[in-house]
Amino acid sequence: MSHTSHPYSMRLVILRPWKSRWFVRRDFKRPLKEDVLLREFLEKKLRGMLVDSIEIERSPSTLNVIVKTARPGMLIGRGGEGAEKLKKDIEKFFKAKMFGKANLKLTIEEIKAPEQHAMIMVESMAQDLEKRLSFRRVLKQTISKIMASRGVLGAKIALSGRLDGAEMARYEWLKEGQMPLSTLRADIDFAKGRAHLPYGDLGIKIWIYKGEVLQNNKPIK
After folding, report:
1. Which residues of the chain have pLDDT under 70?
2. Boundaries of each KH type-2 domain copy (predicted)?
């Protein structure tokens, strides 16, 4: 029986960095639990903001939360009001959960090519499906948008659930270009998410292949 592995975790250290970066000698479970709960809180709060990833860096005195998004203007707000409000919400969350106090730093980074980032495309698809657009139309439009982006060599999109409100759940997918999932030097971005619809949730999975990476970190075209 075959087993599947997550394309991100499979390439950790080889191509991908850790999304939480810190080191402790004792009480490892406390900061780990903080990171997991904080990431869940921010993913719910920032849904619809086209956030690609949330990274956390810790030093003995500072906690740096890095939010990478395709819509930095919406997140920062006029005069930085949105960023300040988000920072206060994170501080309230820490206080409510009685986590250790630290100087909080919030960094918002812009994603230049959103079509090359799987998590952003998952959110975009979820928004279209929640507007009750046809799933086939959304599939074709999304894969065309991804493949039109410069540097993308292959893409695969899978949808599962009660598609178009059918009685029985099923699985539909589209693929274009290459997708070498078992090649560790292949730069494959993967993400999954859900679209919330009146008749149930639809599962979304996206794989984006951007070429192979050598030791000099230059993709092979």
Report:
1. 1-2, 98-102, 215-221
2. 38-112
Q: List Cβ neighbours of 146 (8 Å cut-off, separation of 6 or more).
A: 115, 116, 121, 152, 155, 206, 208
CATH number of 114-220: 3.30.1140.32
Which tokens belong to 24? 């402790």
Would you kindly state where each structural domain of the chain is located, as residue ranges?
Answer: 7-110, 114-220
**Those residues with Cβ within 8 angstroms of residue 93's Cβ, 6 or more apart along the chain or in another chain:** 38, 41
The CA-to-CA distance between both ends of the chain, in Å, stands at 34
Indicate left, alpha or beta for 153 from its phi (over 0: left) and psi (-120 to 50: alpha).
alpha
Cα–Cα distance for residue pair 211/188, rounded to 1 Å: 8
Q: With residue 84 as reference, give the H or E element that holds it.
A: helix 81-96
SS3 at position 118: helix
Fold of 7-110: GMP Synthetase; Chain A, domain 3 (3.30.300)
Comparing CA positions, the residue from 66, 21, 19, 17 lying closest to residue 46 is 66
Q: What is the reported pLDDT for 37?
A: 92
Angle at 122 between CA 63 and CA 168, to 5 degrees: 130
Instruction: Give the model's pLDDT for residue 31.
Output: 86
Residue with tokens 């178009």: 164
